[in-house]
Design goal:
Largest sheet: none
Distance between the termini: 14 Å
Radius of gyration: 23 Å
Number of domains: 2
Mean pLDDT: 85
Helix content: over 70%
Strand content: under 5%
Low-confidence stretches: 112-117, 128-141
Structural class: mainly alpha
Order of helices and strands: HHHHHHHHHHHHHHHHHHHH
């Protein structure tokens, strides 16, 4: 388990910040960050840091080889690095999906104790990596937290070196700092090496940057603790009683999860960017108010921007993008969206979720986009809301046998509009639901922007941050561990 939130805030972060700023030398500051990041990752499951260190050394070596080799040698280094990255991701993340799928399609495997088979696989792996012998393997296999994020970061580096888009990093410590940087290590955003290369070597911290980082970190923490966690409770209550919720109750349940996942992941991204600023880094924005979108194409320009950018740069464009005709473009989009879904987890519902979004993106490119432009703004917005809300239902139900009954409850009036119990729960959360909906739009940011330069607004910001931080700490003390949804990816 990664640090508890309170331990992270009260001890780890404070200690690292103090040590970091006590050291004036840039090289030593990077060493502090690298060691602290590896320690942070190794805290709960030390063996998993071995996998990360292997990834760092392997991709660093691939970059060094490409820096010295020419022609076929460079390409061979790239292929080996990409294959090893994907193999590592496949073994540690997708083993359960492979076993479960084979078990469902091969009759002779239906009686197989799948968890035992997974155990045998990891025993075989422990012959290669002896430290794995001490790892407890569950029925879900062993999934190092954040492996999808740091693997994609490392792959972007070797691909960019091969393309000549970035120089080879000859300092293994600096490269290790890039891969393991703890502010965004376990749930993104996905940071490409070429975007922070100069910052690794020559960033300049300032009081205003640290202040901005603290503010953004606190806002992200409040999104997670004060909104996402409460929406999770509401969603849990309505999810379990879907058969009796009534149509309105079931839709409110999906709305709660829609708000939960945005404030959970968006909150973490704000925290990561804020933490980065405290150490002088500027990470690119990962969310841009996606729920105000008027099409699914727009939604994916605003949601998890770093992932969309990664797939566009390293999958869609290399496949040909839109340069080889409409048919090839549709194929390329289908591949990207299937991979986008699969990236999120080792379950077929994630693939279905990716293809669900991909279907509407393709339809909008073919003809639907032209129609949408003719619709009134409110209808374009409602169309987008319905599509991504249904998508989040697909995303959350890893068991498809539970998904379809819930989707049915969204249109089944046999239980009425809303049950008495569901109505009571919804009304108790209604003020928070309204606040969350407003907070998912740029309204507050626009109002705050109009107050720039006013002294009282700065004091109001300080008061807001202190109140939010106090409420978050009080909630953390009473609730304990608060995992983020995207930690499992």
């Amino acid at each position: 388990m990664i640090f508890s939130s309170l331990l992270f805030l009260s001890i780890f972060l404070v200690a690292v910040l103090v040590l970091y700023y006590l050291i004036p030398n840039r090289t030593y500051r990077n060493i502090v960050l690298c060691v602290a990041s590896l320690f942070f990752y190794a805290w709960g499951e030390p063996v998993c840091v071995i996998i990360m260190v292997f990834s760092i050394l392997m991709n660093y070596a691939a970059g060094m080889v490409m820096g010295r080799a020419k022609g076929a040698g460079r390409k061979a280094a790239l292929v080996v690095a990409v294959v090893l990255n994907l193999l590592m991701l496949g073994v540690f993340k997708y083993t359960p999906l492979v076993f479960d799928t084979l078990k469902s399609i091969i009759p002779s495997m239906k009686g197989m104790a799948t968890p035992v088979a997974k155990q045998e696989l990891y025993k075989a792996l422990s012959g290669i990596i002896p430290q794995l012998k001490n790892v407890k393997i569950t029925a879900e296999g062993m999934l190092p937290i954040g492996i999808s994020f740091y693997t994609f970061q490392a792959m972007s580096y070797v691909i960019d070196v091969y393309r000549g888009d970035t120089a080879v990093q000859k300092n293994p410590m600096l490269f290790g700092t890039y891969v393991a940087l703890f502010p965004q290590l376990i749930a993104g955003p996905i940071v490409r090496y070429k975007d922070i290369e100069d910052q690794l070597l020559g960033r300049h911290e300032s009081v205003s940057q640290i202040s901005s980082g603290v503010k953004l970190f606190t806002i992200g923490l409040a999104k997670k603790i004060l909104i996402a966690n409460q929406m999770a409770v509401l969603w849990g209550s309505l999810r379990s009683s879907s058969a009796t919720n009534g149509v309105v109750g079931s839709w409110v349940g999906i709305m709660a999860y829609t708000l939960q996942i945005y404030f959970d992941f968006g909150g973490y991204s704000d925290m990561a960017i804020g933490l980065g600023r405290m150490f002088g880094f500027e990470f690119l924005k990962n969310f841009d108010y996606p729920y105000i979108s008027q099409s699914m194409t727009e939604f994916w320009r605003r949601w998890h921007i770093s992932l969309g950018t990664w797939f566009r740069e390293y999958v869609y464009i290399p496949l040909g993008g839109n340069r080889k005709g409409k048919g090839r473009q549709i194929f390329n989009l289908a591949v990207v969206w299937a991979l986008t879904g699969l990236w999120h987890g080792a379950s077929w519902n994630f693939v279905l979720w990716g293809l669900w979004h991909g279907l509407f993106v393709v339809l909008e490119k073919i003809f639907l986009g032209k129609w949408l432009k003719k619709w009134p703004r409110v209808f374009r917005h409602l169309y987008s809301i319905v599509i991504f809300m249904l998508g989040w239902a697909i995303f959350d139900f890893t068991d498809l046998s539970e998904l379809f009954p819930y989707l049915g409850s969204l249109v089944n009036f046999s239980a009425g509009l809303v049950s008495h119990d569901s109505l009571a729960i919804i009304l108790s959360y209604l003020p928070l639901i309204i606040a969350a909906i407003v907070a998912s739009t740029p309204l507050f940011a626009s109002l705050r922007h109009k107050l720039d330069g006013k002294a009282w607004a700065e004091y109001a910001d300080i008061g807001f941050i202190l109140i939010a931080l106090t409420l978050c700490i009080a909630s953390l003390v009473s609730s304990g561990y608060n995992p983020f949804i995207y930690f499992r990816f």
